[in-house]
Amino acid sequence: MIRLTKVELRRLTARRLTAIGIVGLFLITGLLLVATWVDARPLSAEAQREAQRQYELAHRDWKTNAAENLRLCEADWQRQPDPKPKLEEMCTYPEPKLEDFGKPQTVFSEITPELLQGTSYFLAFAAFLIGASFLGAEFSSGAIGNWLTFEPRRLRVYGSKLLAAATGLVPIAAVVLAIVLFGTFLIVDRLGDTANATTKVWADLAAIGGRAVVTTALAAVLGCVIGLLFRHTAAAIGVVMAYVVLAEGVFASFLEKAQPWLVRLNFNAFVRHDTKYYLNDCKTGSDGSYSCDYVEKTLSFEHGAWYLAILTVAAVLIGGWVFHRRDIN
């Protein structure tokens, strides 16, 4: 099995689409860092002076009128019939702060989790594409038939291909995520705020990166299985695009309560260790009124991990059964 996996790894790395995919990953990573640098740049000197001027105006107005505005607001609140809002919610006049004016400073611990999550998306897509091509091309070209004459034990061939696709992309994913992580730190350290980059922050970011590596490996395995089932790379990509458009795009907007069973939300819950989503909760009041509120829900890391694990195991078992039973020609 190890010998077969090594052979499959050499075949995977020798493929042109694998090389193109890896080059594309590093290009996208570079563009992502360039976009981060552009977004982290502070305002121009002129814009900063304008923000300072606006802050001084607002602060001067607050010092002059805040007490009178508060008094008038409290008087209005007293005259309102019940039920009325809380006084502290209705009559709030906080002192203006300079950081509320102009562009806020980029904070390393705030933007990096989002960047790593975004990176995990295109890593998973590239891994799926490379995995689907790895198996799909062998079927469409007929090379798999020749390979089975050399190694007729189909399940060993199947397992070695999945293992090669999963492990072959792990170091690439780790390097890409490390470039994003440390590249973002260098950019924000120069242009923004890295003061709160504590040991815990680095540990949390490393954990997100580690889970993104795992999802890359899982995506490569799923790509292999889909490529095997449909025997063509384009068909595998079509299946994914149809799922994204129909399930994640169309049905998710109508069937909100089904969101915990869609791939994207579970992917996010696993990579980010819990994720939030929203449901539209509509009620009819005792007076016949009808109102809707957005209710925040949490999808746990455990739910996402079990979902992805079961999905991958089921796909691997189905792919193995089909590869073992189906006529190769």
UniProtKB/TrEMBL annotation:
<keyword id="KW-0472">Membrane</keyword>
<feature type="transmembrane region" description="Helical">
    <location>
        <begin position="162"/>
        <end position="188"/>
    </location>
</feature>
<feature type="transmembrane region" description="Helical">
    <location>
        <begin position="20"/>
        <end position="38"/>
    </location>
</feature>
<feature type="transmembrane region" description="Helical">
    <location>
        <begin position="121"/>
        <end position="150"/>
    </location>
</feature>
<keyword id="KW-0812">Transmembrane</keyword>
<keyword id="KW-1133">Transmembrane helix</keyword>
<feature type="transmembrane region" description="Helical">
    <location>
        <begin position="304"/>
        <end position="323"/>
    </location>
</feature>
<feature type="transmembrane region" description="Helical">
    <location>
        <begin position="237"/>
        <end position="255"/>
    </location>
</feature>
<protein>
    <submittedName>
        <fullName>ABC transporter permease</fullName>
    </submittedName>
</protein>
<feature type="transmembrane region" description="Helical">
    <location>
        <begin position="208"/>
        <end position="230"/>
    </location>
</feature>
